[in-house]
Amino acid sequence: MSEKIKKRPKVFEPQFFGLILGAFIFILFVFVARFTELDNRFELKMLDMHFYLKSTFRKISTQEGVTQEQRNPNISPDILILGIDNKSLNDFGKWPFPRYREADLVNSFARIQEQNQRESSLFLDIFFNDPDSRAIDDVLLIDAIQNSGRVYLETVLDYYPKEKELSDEMFSRQDLLISRFGMVENIVGDINQIDEYYSTEPPLRPYGNVIAGIGHANFFEDYDKKYRKQKMIVRSSKELEQIRLDLLTENFTLNRDNYERLAWIDKKGISHNIEMPLTESSLKSLEAEMERNAPIKTEDTDNDGTPDDSYYIVRKYEDRFIPAITLVLALNYFNRELSDLEVVLGEHIKIPNPQKFNTETGEWEQYYIVKSYAEYDENNNLLKDAEIELFDEIVIPINEKAELLVNFMGQGSDPSRGGQQTFPVRPFSGYAARVPGPDSSSWPRTKAVDNKILMCGAFALGLDQKTTPFGLMYGVEVHANALNTIIMDQFLHELPWYYNMLILFAAVMIIAFVTSKLSTGFSLAITILLEMGMLLGFTFIFEMNNLIINFTGPAIGMVFTFIVVVVYRVITEEGDKRRIKDMFGKYVSPIVVDQMMENPPELGGVDCEVTIFFSDIRSFTSLSETMSPQELVELLNLYLTAMTDCIMEFYGTLDKYIGDAIMCFWGAPLPQENHALLACKCAVRQLELLKELNATLPENKQIHIGIGLNSGVPTVGNMGSEGRMNYTVMGDDVNLASRLEGTNKQYYTEIIISEKTYDLIKDSGAITRELDDIRVKGKRKPVKIYELLGFEE
């Protein structure tokens, strides 16, 4: 019984299973996005590319050789950087300057006659943690800050605690500042998500007594050491006491109104909060965890060199929530206080009823932003009014850690004259070198900084540089970008996760459908075009709406889907080829099947030098009359199997069965130099096999055959129609081979070969005898024929 060829279930066909693969890939990418940082990291790189594509300035050619730079309306005209640049270093010497220089800068802006046209604030991105080497310089600066009333300083916080004496001093300075300016309160959400810091570096107490405000200057460094976020709020944790774990009981309580908490520190220095209230079960779990991961403290009470006691330490902390200096400057600019803030972690910081100071009227007005500037013709006639947007509130989007994603407006500014500047930068020394005296009558009317936020900081190579999406940028300009994000409502919003998942699903399934249905090349082209379209589309949306749509997930997902589906198609097509080869190998030579796999059959043929073989059973009609149809079929199959296997053994190409006759040939589809010899040896071997077969059969069922062989150059190829074709040979030489097979009856022979075949094998050890010159039907010229008896070997 022939082996049944199993058919693949329909669901596993590429056009259907490709969609199933797409669904699996979608689930995989959702898992990766949910439980790993890979997607976020790729998306940060994509965000960098979005930033690079943004243009800070629009250059409009006004006349030949002249270009006018028009400031981006998304950049606030009220932010001015005072850079401690190379010019300032040349003017005043090495950094840090004596503090009377900062005093001169402060006085330069404070001493103007039109006080309504003063700066909104003056932020000194400079540390004043330690006294100056000359006490008089501190006195001068403190006096200038007090007289100004608009100077803001910064504090920085660190994760690792300082020595106790220094830590106590620093936290006492912080307490002074909190008593003056308050801290962020009424926070909704899990406050433990806000990063905690165990040391702080506020300015000296005399400075804390006179400044107008203070905030922290900490930025968030991503995995690739780039700064893209600023922490709007951080948690300053002051250690109140250390408690032995074995003395901790269920009755222990904390003052939640004072933001107290318990924590322990593991062997790696990482702090772990302790859930409250304490229970017997939680204490046992805490003890077990600390025994595994916490360092143990030992005491030598009698100083004999041997520890007398050992225990684990639990620490009690008091938390204070410190705002970023940019948030503080923005609140001052909006005429709001820290107490006005509404903070919802993971969502927003809301500033209600922001206002803007009108320097002409001296009054506070509803806050607005100029969305587009007024346009004038060459005669200064108004063509288009300025477009403004009024705000009832400013809503700052933050994550669970209260971090703001900074919308960088362009590359780092060049302080040199004529250099590209995202934010205007003026030399520190340009203002500090020209200070009006204490006599108000000699003061200038204005300094042209009305209601501006002045940000003074390092702006020379090697001083306070940070890596950003635009490369190295000075710290004060990073602050400027963060502040501009807030006051210009240029917040970057991320598309909700479910929309991103929908885009991912659509992208993956489209590519899965296309790749499973269309050719690989066409599918690749569609994948590339779709990726380019998404990139351009998402970039345009980012430019116009500051909306971040996840691109890397769909982009990688589409490529991955394309590869997976193509691989599956290759695997299934290879399986299909094997199935076809197995199936058609039963009808034609495996060589023909291989050629069909490489080159799909087409109608037409070529002339090839081949040897054609015909065989036929003698007296087949009489034989069939003595057997039932079933017996005849069984005998015929037995015979044809033996003969066909022999043809395959000698690398022949089976053409067809014609009832009990067999037609085959050598020399095609692959050329064979010894095609005649192989055909003749196959014929001799068939007679030997037939004798072996007949030995197993009764006399009335024994088979006798005649074989005719002819060599020539007939046409070989696919003959028939587009819907049904056959790989065969056609021509006069084929007819002659068929005639020679029948001629065996007249000469009582078994194998007759033509003169052409004889000429090709006569030197190969073939044993032959010349029979006759005959004239076959359809030929005028006689043909010499030979009987093939065997081979010498």
UniProtKB/TrEMBL annotation:
Residue stretches making up the Guanylate cyclase domain: 611-741
Single GO MF annotation: adenylate cyclase activity
Subcellular location, record wording: Cell envelope
Transmembrane segments: 16-36, 497-515, 522-542, 548-571
Tree of life domain: Bacteria
Keywords, comma-separated and alphabetical: Cell membrane, Lyase, Membrane, Transmembrane, Transmembrane helix
GO biological process: cAMP biosynthetic process; intracellular signal transduction
SMART domains the record matches: CHASE2, CYCc
EC number(s) reported in the record: 4.6.1.1
Pfam family, one: Guanylate_cyc
Top EC group: lyase
Family of the protein in this entry: Belongs to the adenylyl cyclase class-3 family.
Listed PANTHER family: ADENYLATE CYCLASE, TERMINAL-DIFFERENTIATION SPECIFIC, ADENYLATE CYCLASE, TERMINAL-DIFFERENTIATION SPECIFIC-RELATED
Entry protein name: Adenylate cyclase
Organism name: Spirochaeta isovalerica
